[in-house]
Amino acid sequence: MALQLGVDTGGTYTDAVLIRDEQEVIASAKSLTTRHDLAIGVGGAVRAVLAQSGVAAQDVSMAALSTTLATNALVEGQGGRVALVYIGFAPEDLERHGLSEALKGDPALVLAGGHTHAGSEAAPLDTDTLLAFLETETVGVSGYAVASVFATRNPAHELEAARIIAETTGAPVTCSHQLSAKLNGPKRALTAVLNARLIGMIDRLIGRAQHTLADIGITAPMMVVRGDGALMSAEQARTRPIETILSGPAASIVGARWMTGVDTALVSDIGGTTTDVALIKGGRPAIDPEGARVGGYRTMVEAVAMRTSGLGGDSQVHIHAEGLQGGLVLGPRRVVPISLIATEAPDVVHAALDRQVNAPVVGEHDGKFLRAVPGLPVAGLGEREAVLLDRIDSDVHPLGAVLRTRMEQGALNRLVDRGLVQVAGVTPSDASHVLGRLDAWDRVAAEKALTLFARRRIGSGDTLAPDAETLARTIIDQLTEQTSLTLLEAAFAEESEGFGLPPEQLARHVLMRRGLKNHRGMLALDAALNVDVVGLGASAPSYYPAVGDRLHCRMILPEHAGVANAIGAVVGRVTMRRSGSVTSPAEGKFRVHLEGGPQDFTSSEAALKTLEDHLSAEARHEAQAAGAENINVHVTRDIRTAQVEAREVFVEAFLTAEASGRPRVATED
Asked: pTM for the full model?
């Protein structure tokens, strides 16, 4: 009998599930995610699931971790301070390709060097300028990203720059060619920057999770779910954390398929921070050929084709102030629900809310609180941010008691972006407490906070809502509306024939809106989502029946919908892909581009065979290192040719080797 433990660390809850022989869920449990020390939440969920099942820790034969931490960090703009070394590109490329925005003021160096399309050196690498940069411009940098022009044709300059950086600083370095074998240097550079930003965060999570499992007595190896739903070893995830973006959502799709057996359906997973929607077709999730898009960034990471939006049970509620009518909008930033923070500091929260409720006028910061997240690196903070963080210390404070000037609002935003401070405010979770749909935390605090929020003025001068209960219903209705729009966007994006407009516009088109309401006038309009929806997430049973009604579709809510991510972590496969290219720089010459440098051949088949053998061996080795057994390797060739004077001429080939197998598990004799 094999007992497998799945763990998922979400923005609000950490889930754990035990599965017997990949066939039966025997126990599941939840614990609040503890951002200041993720091990507390992991340990709480694992201990609870072991106690519930009566299973001894040493009997667990495999542990697997999925996480929304990387996804949430990119959606919320969080992560460590990084530096980019950009080799062979023009300085204006930083702005042109969105790298400056992704760097968020972190240092960047545009350096001479790089290679040509054929893999020959375009210019010598300027190592003197690199060394000077490392000595003067990189205080507080937690990770480096290195991207060189045509590094997938020849990575020599990336590797040399990485060696110098590692020897000089001791900090982790991400090379763009190690994340993708495809062309598009700026996009690889962006992916490398995001990877470097996530390294410290994911390394802490995995390290603490491993130590926690060991303390509990679980000695089985730990796997981590990638963004394509496959498994990788914990050690591999620590060096390539960018591959864990969409890890949790990908695991939920694997879990949805395992629980329901659906062949074709939209899967919608609502968490505390995001809603993730993907299509299962033919029993498998599609892989996004353009790379995962998260938080407005298009990366080169292979991941499930998924639309991720900043909409969850803990999304911040904003007043939509444009026009006279007013209204609400949710997200994209997650905040701590008032009902939750009141359980942690009840005296502070209730005293402040009582004072604010009894005041004649609602203040700008009323109904909001903040707290610092201890134990995270603070190097590289500006003076204003450092002063503000010191003032917050380790306590929960009303927001208005901490901010003393308008200038400090920007400093607070930067602290939140770094993940050093969390803000608490009104969320759909609070609205659900007011309406009696949830009773996990402090309902009274939620009601006070919504009473305050309801008194805020919209553009017409009227109050937003007459009371807390009315506002709560409005918030839930808005969550239903935004979830419906997310599902419609995904459906339009998957249509085989286009409608002439982007999915975002089609989902909001007046004809679609009228069709969903079965308009009857001179025209009869009917519209519906013509595919089942699998609703996942702990709050799905509370929110998603109304979404099914709105879209006139069947809503499937599996028994274990609340721990689908943890289930998917257990039942996935180890899959490793390695890609490479063959070019033809001259007639009769075929060049294989390898990490050790280009190799030339006189026949295309010899070049293709060399690359295929190399990629297959690398993929198999990576799968074995991840703990897979019974490995199968499959190679695909994408060969491009051209007609020249009635002859078919080889232009380029792109090969991908995929090695796949189930993770090894220890079984009883």
From this structure: 0.73
